Amino acid sequence: MKLQLTSLALGCSTSKELCARFATVNPETAFTTQNAYKWVRGKATPRLSSVYEDWARILGGGLTASFIAASSFDEFAQMIRRHLPVPDSALTKLRHDHPSPPAPAAPASGPAADSPMRPPSLRPNQWLAGDYLAVSLAWSQLKTGNLILGRAEIAPADGGDFTIRYTESLFGQDVTMTGAMLCDGRTAQAAVRCSLTLRLYFFALRAPAPPANIIGGILSGAALHDFEARAVAGRIILIRDHLKRGDPLHRPSYLAASPELLDEELDHLGYAGDPQRMAASRRLLALLQAPPPHGLIEMPPDALGALGLDFDRIAPRIAHAGG
Known about the structure:
The chain is of the alpha+beta class. It folds into 2 domains: 2-97, 434 Repressor (Amino-terminal Domain), CATH 1.10.260; 126-318, Lipocalin (Beta Barrel), CATH 2.40.128. Helices cover 32% and strands 23% of the residues. The chain is built from 10 helices and 9 strands. It has helices at residues 2-10, 15-25, 33-40, 49-59, 65-70, 73-80, 88-97, 259-268, 275-289, 301-314; strands at 130-137, 147-156, 162-170, 173-183, 187-194, 200-206, 214-222, 231-240, 254-255. It has an 8-stranded antiparallel barrel. A hairpin with a 5-residue loop joins strand 5 (187-194) and strand 6. Helix 1 runs parallel beside helix 6. The longest helix has 15 residues, at 275-289. It starts with a helix and ends in a 9-residue tail after the last helix. Mean pLDDT is 82; it is low at 101-124 and 318-323.
């Protein structure tokens, strides 16, 4: 429905014309005629984040790739109509052609209500779930300039939310932080409690577009091994682990800020080994180390989006499936 509404708003009468609009912003776009046939008819959903980035560029108006991917149809329509002409009659026809499914009935009490045969419901932002290598700059004054490698696990929770479990190994001791994660389609935020100090730490992440090979944002809190418990915040990148080994080849630890060493870690996650992977390593380091503008520590959306495209190109082929 979002793609059909996009066609109407842009004045495209055929999928071929819509493909041409995507090609104007990215000659190598994955929005090809073959894929458009499936996607516009709802037979499959785009999973490449580059498709959503291209989509945001042709629509303009400040729309982001993550919003296009995660928003409801009504939210999407409301945003488009702020700067593109869409007649009420067109929206009425779209809703008539694609009626919303009836609301599910309240579950009955008793054993049948907990039957494992009930089909699972589709979760918004479901692509967030997964195992990740977390990369950030070290907070310890003894390790200034190094990276800290951590492990992050994001899992679905009751009520449509998520949980996050983040682990670092500091001076030979594993430190775990856990908490609930809330995602509104644009941001993914979590307040986590440290198992060692019982202090709170805060993740402010940008919700990714599928297939969510990376998630970027800010981690803030107080330095663990610091007498003064300095208040610290820094950029953090979560990189999806496609191999999901039971015993990962990398351990949460400090690492010299070297693109060569980071490239080795990406190999342990299943990303393709070629010059593009080294380029992704260099871009990731540059993003983490970039000086904060105007004294504010932020995760620049454009830089993060470019990094996401780098990782989409080197991700295992299964992550590039169009269906």
